[in-house]
Design a protein that fits this description.
single chain, mainly alpha, Rna Polymerase Sigma Factor, Chain: A, 3 helices, elongated
Length: 91
């Protein structure tokens, strides 16, 4: 096995994280951004960031508090970004 290759334990942790929090994180993000596709993307990004940053979770707060602080920051960043707009054309 090479360095960086997922182990059975890391795959199980990722599956557990995704299964337990995917829907809650999506709904939380959707409540902030009010766009289905953007909320899906943000939720996926939040879960991936949390998985990659598990070593940084120090346990001083609840895991869900830490996870949703990541979600809050991702949503705020998404809302700050200028969005492309669709031009309406009269028919």
């Amino acid at each position: 096995m090479t360095q960086g290759e997922p182990t059975a334990e890391s795959r199980a942790a990722a599956t557990e994280l995704h299964g337990r929090y995917r829907e809650r994180v999506y709904r939380w993000c959707y409540g902030r951004v009010r766009e289905h596709e953007l909320a899906l993307d943000l939720a996926q990004d939040v879960l991936l960031s949390a998985y990659r940053g598990l070593d940084g979770f120090d346990g001083r707060a609840r895991f869900s508090s830490w996870l949703f602080s990541i979600a809050r920051n991702r949503c705020l960043n998404a809302l700050r970004r200028p969005r492309p707009f669709e031009e309406c054309v009269d028919l």
